[in-house]
Amino acid sequence: MKIYDFLIIGAGSAGCNIAHFLHQEGKTVAVVDREGIAGGASGAAGAFLSPLAGKQNLYNTCVNEALKFSLDFYQKLIPDAIDKKGVLRVINAHFKEEKLKDNNIKYDYLDAKKLQKISKNFREIDGYFYKNAAVLEPMKFCKKLIEGCDYYTKDVKEFTFENDFYTIEDIKVKNIILAQGVSNPLVALPYMQISPIFGLRIDVKTTTAVPFNIHKSISVSTNKQDGTISLGATHERHDTAKTNCSTTCDKCQFYINTEEVQIKTLLNQADALMKLEDLEIVKIYKGARATIKSYFPVIGKIIDYEKSMKKYPSIKNGTKISADTLEYYPNLYVINALGSRGFVFGPYLAKILSENIIRDTPIPKELSTQKLFYKLARTKLID
Ligand SMILES: Cc1cc2nc3c(=O)[nH]c(=O)nc-3n(C[C@H](O)[C@H](O)[C@H](O)COP(=O)(O)OP(=O)(O)OC[C@H]3O[C@@H](n4cnc5c(N)ncnc54)[C@H](O)[C@@H]3O)c2cc1C
Predict the structure, then answer these.
(1) What is the pTM of this model?
(2) Does pLDDT of 255 surpass 70?
């Protein structure tokens, strides 16, 4: 029997980052994943890191703080697996100058003429250039993050809790952290309804020099250190019959568009931004990212919804009940719903969660499990 302080279920950006920060705190950590390291959305991600412009609000402030923290963190961790050359946000109906007013992120406006001076391969586009943006190699980072932890390929179906320890087959742990992405959670989390949004990344070789990342409704990366560029988008939908993720995306039968159509669409969208010469497809990745309605990611201790509602039925009527007195699963935490910014949020959230676990520092309300719990409890939809 192996004994650890923490078991992390899910070896994506969320799981590997929290494993890293807990290991840095001197804890013994095991990580498990049924698909292998970065076998879910994280391995498929284009892994672009960009600021979120627009009038300042709680969400873009959170994204931009996370970006600052995470860029610095990644550059120190593996400098040669991250390319920080900035991003051009191309103007479209939703992204115009008016949207940038009151925005405190500095940018340079580049029209088509200026862009074509940089490279004749730019199409007739114009946009805003932000220098604090990058693209990284997701697999390299996930592997590096869990150095010093034990990793097992394992499909966890259930766990039991007895005498202050959880048992999962031959592993005993004091604490579990669920970092499961779009998969069904191993305990009931009715207040955290995850919607999967599917996407595609194509790594290609080209003789064209792409000076920086380009983003419109899809993303095109700069030439990365491995000699490829990544094209990525997460817009694909399932047909209405099936939405539960029972297999990995590359084996999934339920896309509305065939793989051929998905690839063609993405290549056409990339071509509308820049002509990529001598293009050769190297690898295709598919994945599904986990999103919830509020867009904010979620971290913290897992509240037992049923037990808490039984203990305090009047929560439904708006009675204020302190978060400390709710019923929690013992030593069970979650880090999930990283949305389209899993690599921007990963290190930032993991740092906050690890400090909360080790030093009991507070979790910002907008990221907390409590916020979602109270929201559902007060909708009176569940008794
Ligand atoms: C095509 C695509 C492009 C994207 N582009 C970007 C981008 O440019 N920038 C960005 O920041 N983000 C991007 N994202 C989003 C980003 O990939 C996700 O937000 C992030 O990877 C989520 O990480 P995660 O660890 O929460 O989930 P995942 O990476 O999906 O990891 C969850 C893991 O849990 C495992 N698991 C679940 N249940 C169990 C169980 N019971 N037992 C064992 N293992 C289990 C799964 O196998 C999976 O590997 C993109 C996503 C996709 C799909």
Answers:
(1) 0.95
(2) no
